[in-house]
Amino acid sequence: LKLSITVGFISLIFYPFPLCLQIIGSDGGFYCFNLIVSGERKSWEEALESCRQSHTSLTTLTSEAELLLAKTAIQQDHITDRLWIGLRFLGNRWMWMSREPLFYQAWPEASQDHQCPATGRCGALNKQGLWENWDCQDKLNFICS
C-alpha cells in the first residue's frame, strides 16, 4: 500500500509505517525519510531523551517535502494538536539539535512570537504544518527520526 502525490516536478510516495518518503526528482534520485510519531506526552527534554534512546533524535524538518510527510503522519485524533520537533532556541537563534542548518522555515507568517521568545523556546509542529514555539515543559506528543 502506498500513496503517491505529485508536487511540481517532484513525486512523493508515502509507504506505511515506519513512514518513508521517496522523492523522485528530475535526477531520478531516491530519498527515504523515516518518522516515528510517539503517542506518549512528554516535555521537550524528555522527548529528546526518549528519541535518542530508541531512534536518532527529535525529527529535523529541512524541506517542504519533509514537512509534508510529517504533517501527514500527525493527522490522528489521539495525537496532540502540536508535537515536539528537534528545534530549540539557544544562543539567540533557533537551531536543529541535529546541527543541520536552518535554511527552510515554516513559522506562521503573521506571528512574530518566535523572533526573541522570553518563554516558548522549544519548537513544535502543529497539525496545519506550521512551526510554533512553546514552553519546553509542556507535555506534547513528539516525532522521532
From TrEMBL:
Per UniProt, residues of the C-type lectin domain are: 28-145
Arranged from A to Z, the UniProt key words for this protein are: Disulfide bond
Pfam family membership, one: Lectin_C
* InterPro entries in alphabetical order: C-type_lectin-like (IPR001304), C-type_lectin-like/link_sf (IPR016186), C-type_lectin_CS (IPR018378), CTDL_fold (IPR016187)
Q: Which domain of life is it from?
A: Eukaryota
Spell out the PROSITE patterns in the cross-references: C_TYPE_LECTIN_1, C_TYPE_LECTIN_2
**Disulfide bond listed as a keyword:** yes
* Protein name in UniProt: C-type lectin domain-containing protein
Lineage, opening ranks = Eukaryota, Metazoa, Chordata, Craniata, Vertebrata
